[in-house]
Amino acid sequence: MPQYKHNEITIHFSNEGTRNEVRKRVVDKLFKEVPGTGNEENASRYLYYVETLSTGDRIYLQRPANLHNGFDFLICVENQNYSPKGKRKRNYPKHDDLIADLQMKKRANPELYRKLYHLIRKVYECHDVTDAEMAEIDFGKGFDTDHVVKVFKWFFIEQDIRYWNYSGRMKTWQETVPEP
Question: What end-to-end distance do the CA atoms of the chain give, in Å?
Fold first, then answer.
């Protein structure tokens, strides 16, 4: 598979406000992309570095996404492989990856899981969560708390953009995050 040059941009997007305000901030940035002139090497490509994890790895948005649908983007994490052992490497999480992690954490420590759930809910309700808040929750296994919370932030934003006229983030919240 050919490797294409991407325009790389580091930017922070606040999660404060309404769903529409958050979505608009992201879409406004995407509107500034220079259009491509064709397929393959003639397509415009972008990587938006949007979060830094406690490990130093970054979460980035890759555009266009694999399906090339409008404002769609792929949420990726540097130096992460979400694939099962023996399968092709995948640095982009799927909802199921985080569901399995959350279920494991809930079983392992229900009290600590309630705290994690509260942070994810805060992100779902369009509020920023500080690194200090996330650092207080350590399960000692699975994905780090900041990894989970920051990926969920982008799952929610992506769903609000993709399902603009529908439930957006609500479906992800209801189907992905187990109640404490």
Answer: 43
Tens digits of residue pLDDT in 14-43? 999 999 999 999 999 999 999 999 888 898
Q: Which of 94, 99, 142 is nearest to 120 (CA)?
A: 99
**Which residue in 7, 11, 101 sits closest to 51, CA to CA?**
11
Query: How many C-alpha atoms does 146 have within 13 Å on its Cβ side?
Result: 17
Reported as half-sphere exposure (CB side, CA atoms, 13 A), residue 73 has a value of 25
For the residues of 83-120, what is the DSSP string, one character each?
A: SPTTSPP--S--HHHHHHHHHHHHHH-HHHHHHHHHHH
Domain ranges of the chain: 7-176
pTM, two decimals, is: 0.94
